[in-house]
Amino acid sequence: MILMPLAGWPALSAEGQATAFFGLQLPTLMAANENFAEIIKEVHETGAVVGYLLIALHAAAALFHPYAVRDNTLKRMLPGRR
User: Fold this and answer.
1) How far apart are CA 71 and CA 11, in angstroms?
2) CA distances (Å), origin 32, targets 7, 9, 14, 16, 44
3) Are 21 and 5 in contact (CB under 8 A)?
4) What are the Cα distances from residue 75, in Å, to 56, 72, 78?
5) Contacts of 25 (CB under 8 A, 6+ apart)
6) What is the pLDDT of residues 16-70, one digit of tens each?
């Protein structure tokens, strides 16, 4: 979650675009370089796909416990349950 914006900032800088972060203008990190921008974009997109896969795997594991293993692991995570 921290690396994704840190990969997006140099990608926008290499494209020559300004980077806005919560209303603040971040300085450009480098001069415009389209080849480097494409490389950083690929890294950024690959990180997003890996993140989505990890989220899906985590959700599948959470559903695996109550429906396949039939234990109370998911119920024990809910607030107010003992």
Assistant:
1) 46
2) 16, 13, 4, 5, 18
3) yes
4) 19, 5, 5
5) 18, 19
6) 998 888 999 999 899 999 999 999 999 999 999 999 999 999 999 989 988 999 9
Helix crossing, 34-64 with 3-15: angle to 10°?
Answer: 160
Structure tokens at 71: 């234990």
The two three-digit tokens of residue 77, written as one number: 């995570």
The set of residues, in sequence order, having a beta carbon less than 8 Å from that of 16 and lying 6+ positions away, is 28, 31, 32
**SS in 3 state form for the chain?**
CCHHHHHHHHHHHHHCCCEEECCEEECCCCCCCHHHHHHHHHHHHHHHHHHHHHHHHHHHHHHHHHHHHCCCHHHHHCCCCC
**CA separation (Å) from 33 to 6, 36, 76, 81?**
17, 6, 52, 55
Rounded to two decimals, the pTM is: 0.71
